[in-house]
Structures are given as C-alpha cells and as structure tokens.
Amino acid sequence: MDNKQDSAEFARQKKIPESFCVEPRQDLDALLKKLGEEKAKFEAVVAAIGDPVVIIDTDYRVLYQNKIADGLFGDNIGRYCHAVYQGRKEVCPECALTQAWQDGGIHKIEKIMTSGNDAKYVEIAASPLKDSTGKLVAGIEIVRDITKRKLAEQKLQKTNSLLQAVLDSTTDGILAVDPEGHLLTCNQKFVEIWGIPPHILKQYGDDEALAFVLDQVQHPDAFLQKVRDLYRSPDATDLDVISFKDGRSIERYTRALVINGRNRGRVWSFRDITKFRQAEEEKGKLVSELQTALAEVKRLSGFLPICSHCKKIRDSDGQWIQIETYITKHSEAVFSHGICPECIQIYHPEEYKKIYPEDR
C-alpha cells in the first residue's frame, strides 16, 4: 500500500472529519500538517476566550486544560475533576456536565472551586462534546472567576440587610416608590399601619393596591387627588393628616427620593398620631373645664349682696341663701361648723366658764 492509500486508511481509522480530509494525492505529512494547523486554531480560539477552559471525559477525568486553567489550578491532566477542583471523592451532585450530558444542552451553575488552600467563586458553563457519529465523548467547561462580583453582592446584601433593619426599627411607616408609584422598598411598620396583604404589597402601585388603600380612608377622593398632585410635582414636599374610617389619625410626610442629585421617586413617612390627637382633645376639654371653674371663682370675688343681720347672700335668681351654702355651690370649699369664744360666752355661758375658767 503506497503513501496515498496509507493516508486514506489512517483518516478512516481515526474518524477524521471531512473538513480535515485532503485530496488522495496528498501524503500523510500534509494531513498531519493540516491537523496541526487546526489544533493551533483551536488553541488560539481557546486562548482568546480569556477564561479557564477544561475538557473532561465521560469518566470525569481531565483531558485538557488551557494555559489559564493551568495557571489557576495546576496541571491536572488525567485526574478526576471533582477531586482536583472540589476536593470530593465522588461526582458533585449538582455537576453542570452531568446535566449537559443528560439533555445535550448548555448548563450554567455557580459554585465555590477549591485548589489547595485557595477558594474562588466561579460560574461554570458546561456543554457536551460529540464525535462525528454523534456519540458523546467528553464535555467542555468554561470557568469564569466571579469572586469579585460575589463579594460585591455579599457586601451589597449586607448593606441592604442593615438598611432594612434600620427601617424596621423606626416607629414610622416608611414607603419608597419609583416615579410611577411602584414599590421600591418599605418597612414592617408601613405594612402594619395599612394592613396590606403580601400579594397586594408586591403589586403596590396598581389598581388593586390603590383600591385597598382608598377603602380605609374617610375622604378617598381628596386623598387620591393629593397623591396625584404630588406625583405631578415630583420635587414637592408635603405634610398632612389622614383620617381613617376606624378612627385612627395618621400623619403623612413626603418628599422626593434623590439619589446622586437625580430624582428617583418619592419617599412617604406615616406616623400614627391617634393617641396624641386624643390627648390634645382631652387637654382642650380640661382647659375648658378649668376656664369655667375659674369663671365661677371670679364670681365669688365680685360684688356679693349680703344681709347685714343674718348674713345671707342673695344669688343671681334673687334668692337669699345661707353664706356657707352659697360659697359651697360656687367653689370647692367645704364647711365644718363650730362656735367662737364670743358666741359661747353669749349663748352658752356655763360652757364658757368650763372652757375658759381663767376669765372668772
């Protein structure tokens, strides 16, 4: 068999794709050269990806790593991927390659990849590799280091959790909405004040949520008009009191939500002042009663017509009544009766002698 026949037989045995085939007159050296060129192209494409690329066979052994993967994880050719990347003795239960092999699609997962004492957050995109007959022979994983992104997300989540904790610790109900009135965030006190169910809260700003809110206030038309006026004036600030049908009084304060100098919506603050207003009403009632009492006391300090003999006082109705009765009626004074020494001597001389024997 000459070189031409050797080349054709080699191509058939190795199942080389047709795109790699050469004319019968070309020899094996030309074919190998072409294979080398294709390999170089493949290496160039993989290098241009900029992320670690790993090819793993169906036994989960590493067949290939590009230079970036070598730099991150070391040379792991021939080793089990779950052992070198995850430190596991068995295949990872959430393995993206397993999923790709099962349905033939591309699967992405996020996980922590370990190499020695180093751990990184990575996003793995896995897809199956098949030969020219369609038989599954391996899988390819592109590993993207997302450690910085995950750490930033964790920091953001921590900040958001802290902010939510601060909001929930306030005594006021807080609501932040976008320029269209849809929910950005709120605290638990806001939910308690309005009693909004979770499924309505998620859609805050739509017709169902608006109807739920309006059904609670005493003057829904005025309430709705004020809200619309404020949304038409995005930079406006407003303070008023909302009267609820259940008797509560809620003070509402609102201003623009400004972030980095730009208006991003509106913040609403709600404070239950029901007890405060009740106290104010009680205070007003008490003041009125005190003023009435003071007026009564002033009447006693004015001109009082009194009899020069029996000492009775003539009231506003023209009736003559005992002085102690009059004073008791027009003040809080309470009388107890006794007798002075002069009267005892006049009306009870014997008793006087007993009480004052030194005057004999």
Question: What does it look like?
Answer:
This protein is an alpha+beta fold and 360 residues long. The chain folds into three domains: 3-150, Beta-Lactamase, CATH 3.30.450.20; 167-275, 2-Layer Sandwich (Beta-Lactamase), CATH 3.30.450.20; 303-360, no CATH class. 44% of the residues lie in helices and 23% in strands. The chain contains 14 helices and twelve strands. The chain has helices at residues 3-13, 28-49, 67-73, 81-86, 96-103, 147-168, 188-194, 198-201, 207-214, 220-232, 274-301, 323-330, 341-347, 349-355, and strands at residues 53-57, 62-65, 107-115, 118-130, 136-145, 173-177, 183-186, 238-243, 249-259, 262-272, 313-314, 320-321. It has a five-stranded antiparallel beta sheet with strand order 2-1-5-4-3, sandwiched between helices. A five-stranded antiparallel beta sheet has the order 7-6-10-9-8, sandwiched between helices. It has a two-stranded antiparallel ribbon with strand order 11-12. Strand 4 and strand 5 form a beta hairpin. Helix 13 packs across helix 14 (349-355). The longest helix has 28 residues, at 274-301. It is rod-shaped. It starts with a helix and ends in a 5-residue tail after the last helix. The model has no long low-confidence stretch (mean pLDDT 82).
Count of spatially separate domains:
3
The radius of gyration over CA amounts to 48 Å
List segments where confidence is low: pLDDT < 50 over at least 5 consecutive residues: none
Mean pLDDT: 82
The second-level CATH architecture of the largest domain is 2-Layer Sandwich
Total count of helical runs of at least 4 residues: 14
Strand order of the largest sheet: 2-1-5-4-3
CATH class of the largest domain: Alpha Beta
Q: CATH topology of the largest domain, anyone? A: Beta-Lactamase
Order of helices and strands: HHEEHHHEEEHEEHHHHEEEHEEHHH
SS class: alpha+beta
Distance between the termini: 172 Å
Kindly state the percentage of residues in helix.
Answer: 40-55%
The largest sheet is: 5 strands, antiparallel
CATH H-tier superfamily of the largest domain = PAS domain
In total, the number of strands is: 12
Shape descriptor: rod-shaped
Beta-strand level of the residues, as a percent range? 15-25%
